[in-house]
DUF1660 family phage protein (Robiginitalea aurantiaca), 73 residues
Amino acid sequence: MKKLFCSLFGHHYSVSKKVTSHIKEYSCVHCGKQVTTDASGNLSLLTPEMKEINETLENIYQKRHGQGSHQLA
Ligand SMILES: [Zn+2]
């Protein structure tokens, strides 16, 4: 039934993880389908390969933008 809802009304994505300021991972609140922003800014299926790419990007992004959690004011 939940998948039928998605096919009728479209997926309802909510952000599951912020990778960089431009790239986020989303999952559908109804069926759990996972997608991510790709390099060209479109949503594409979150494959294991895409997850690995995102983890790499996240590491680079966090190194460039402050030192992480212990620098919180
Ligand atoms: Zn869905």
About this structure: The chain has a mean pLDDT of 88. The pocket of zinc ion is lined by residues 6, 11, 28, 30-31, 33 (CB under 6 Å). The chain has one domain: 2-64. Strands lie at 13-18, 24-28, 34-37, 43-45.
